[in-house]
Amino acid sequence: MKDISIKYIDNKDAVLSFVWNVFLEFEAPDYSEKGVKEFHKSICDEDYLQQLRIYGAFFEDKMVGVIATRDANSHIALFFVDGNYHRQGIGRNLFEVAKSNCNSDKMTVNSSPYAVPIYAKLGFRQTDTEQIVNGIRFTPMEISLP
Questions:
Q1: Entry pTM
Q2: In a domain, 116, yes or no
Q3: What CATH number corresponds to the domain at position 91?
Q4: Closest CA to 65 of 23, 11, 18
Q5: Is a pLDDT exceeding 70 seen at residue 103?
Q6: Could you tell me if residue 83 is left (phi over 0), alpha (psi between -120 and 50 degrees) or otherwise beta?
Q7: How far is C-alpha 84 from the chain's CA centre?
Q8: How many angstroms separate the Cα of 37 from the Cα of each of 23, 33, 144?
Q9: HSE-up of residue 67 (Cα within 13 Å, Cβ side)
Q10: Helix H segments across 44-132?
């Protein structure tokens, strides 16, 4: 794995372009036009962004991954890794940081279709079937924490 640093990001605007670009590449193909617009609306909603605790993964000062939690750090709201950095442990390291800051005995996520296998590898299990709300496709998942 490359020399990656993970740090808390206070400036929410710094992650929006990154999240949007990775979303467009990996997630948007599985969504309707309505779903893509709804996702963009959510990441531009100041009230929503204020609820998030965001950590970024950096390689040589370049953002290569992001994880954001809410609800006492027990729900993963955003989780994206630059495609050029997939399968290098960056997502797992981001998840471990988020998990270590969780104030609950479990974590939840509403996984996109693309990420269901990734969450399963991290130990999450499906708690319901895939759903669509406002064009956003997701599968509810959770993991019990020790």
A1: 0.92
A2: no
A3: 3.40.630.30
A4: 18
A5: yes
A6: alpha
A7: 17
A8: 12, 6, 32
A9: 24
A10: 46-50, 90-100, 116-122
Residue 129 vs residues 47, 72, 111, 137, 144: alpha-carbon distances, Å: 29, 25, 11, 11, 19
Residue 68 lies in a domain: yes
| Total count of domains within the chain | 1
Question: Which of 141, 124, 139, 143 lies closest to 30, judged by CA?
Answer: 139
Residue 85 lies in a domain: yes
Count of CB atoms within 10 A of residue 128's CB? 11
The pLDDT assigned to 14 comes to 77
Residue 1: pLDDT above 60?
no
Q: What is the extent of the structural domain holding 74?
A: 4-103
Do the domain assignments include residue 76?
A: yes
**Number of Cβ within a 10 Å radius of residue 91:** 22
